[in-house]
Amino acid sequence: MPKHDDVHFEMYSPQTQAKHEILASYLPAYLSALKNKVDRFHYIDGFAGRGTYGQGKPGSPLVALQKIDEAKVCDRTSISLVEKRESYFQELKSCVEGHALVSGLLNSPLIRQGKFSEHFPEILNREVYGSGARVATFAFIDPCGIEDVRMADLISLLKIEYCELLLFFNYDAVNRIGGSIAAGTMDMGILSELYGSESSIESLVSELKTAGAPSDREGIIRDTFIRSLKRGSGARFSVPFRFSAKRQDRTSHYLVHVCNNPLGFKIMKSVMWEVGRDDAEEYGRLEFDSDPERGQLLLFRPDIENQKKSILDRLRRSACKVSEFSVNWMNSPNDYFSEQAYKKMLLDLEKENRLAVFDKENQKPAPTSSRRKMKGKPTLGNDYWLRLSNS
Ligand SMILES: C[S@@+](CC[C@H](N)C(=O)[O-])C[C@H]1O[C@@H](n2cnc3c(N)ncnc32)[C@H](O)[C@@H]1O
After folding, report:
1. For residue 391, how many other CB atoms are within 10 A of its CB?
2. C-alpha angle with apex 333: 332 to 339, nearest 5 degrees?
3. Is the CB of 57 under 6 A from ligand 1?
4. Does residue 152 have its Cβ closer than 6 Å to ligand 1?
5. Is residue 324 within 6 Å of ligand 1 at its C-beta?
6. Considering 276, 296, 316, which residue would you say is the last residue of a domain?
7. How many domains are there within the chain?
């Protein structure tokens, strides 16, 4: 029987596709935003895989390499890849080293076989960080399970200036192992590495005992982890993108982005909301549903409706500019709505006649007919004013 990993690499599942889409859409924006601020880039793929999927689809290292080339920063970029399984490592090494773009990189790629944690010190000591260069590090940590994902390593990464982390967090595994620890059938070892200490697992397990609904349990597991990561590293921003399990309406993983830069936060939210959008609706979401048939049931959006209410509550206090929501609210580290989602909520509220748009001086009404259109649809610039509708 094929091993789980073999199936993973043969299938190129919609989940993997969504993960790659997020990586491929975010990297160009990240590279171009930092191009003039830093001297060099370092792309780290800690659980790099075998380089390609069945049908010749590129794996994450090749996706990244392509985007690095398109951003024209190859000659300022180092890449470091680790893969544990010998046969995958050999495939990875040959497809990366044989890739036409590799010779244009700043230096030879570091490709290691073994555990990420074993090679981590070498990666952090790479010459790319030498001679006081300003280096933007992007780390993609994409394990199958949770083994060898250590809070201490993630914190060390995020403490590097300009570092951003994209981590595939296996919620399902943490939930299961947390249950076994609570039942006394498993020790804390593997989870304490992930969460940083035994004491954090003790408090996690005791908090889980008091959790009511499964969604509370999920929130505790996810938020405790992200909070520790942010507290330890000083990173201010995080976005969790949820993956549900196939054929079951429960969470399997989160793809978590962590950074210390409001621009990265803003761009990643836009990218993730867009990847979570399907044809049936316009907003998108921070979620990828592996079962497209279930999507039809999710058209009602309590998250959007609640946020629209908060917008109207704000306008009840006073008129304000569009940017109050699309910039100020959107930039708040605890806010998971994208700039585009805010604009769409405001346009919907205008259409529903619950708010009115005024010109940039807040003098005259600026109905949709007077504003710029894009693909036939009205737009809403940040400098327009908003007032609660009279009707
Ligand atoms: C989900 S796959 C990675 C896929 C790859 N990032 C991509 O998107 O193309 C996870 C990989 O991590 C490897 N792996 C497992 N444990 C590891 C460890 N401790 N260190 C490095 N790699 C590991 C597995 O063999 C597997 O190939």
Report:
1. 6
2. 55
3. no
4. no
5. no
6. 296
7. 2
Q: Which long-range contacts (CB under 8 A, 24 or more apart) does 209-215 make?
A: 209/182, 214/250
Query: Does 59 contact ligand 1 (Cβ within 6 A)?
Result: yes
pLDDT tens figures, 95-133: 999 999 999 999 999 999 999 999 999 999 999 999 889
**CA 265 – ligand 1 centroid, Å:** 26
* pLDDT tens digits along 277-302: 988 778 999 998 766 665 555 678 99
Distance 129 CA to ligand 1 centre (A): 25
The residue contributing the CA closest to ligand 1 atom 19 is 115
Looking at residue 367, which CATH number applies to its domain? Answer: 1.10.10
3-state helix, strand, coil in the chain (%, to 5): 50, 15, 35
Average pLDDT score over residue span 200-224: 92
Mutate to test the pocket of ligand 1, among 44, 45, 47, 90 (most ligand atoms within 8 A of CB): 47
User: What integer pLDDT is reported at residue 28 of this predicted model?
Assistant: 98
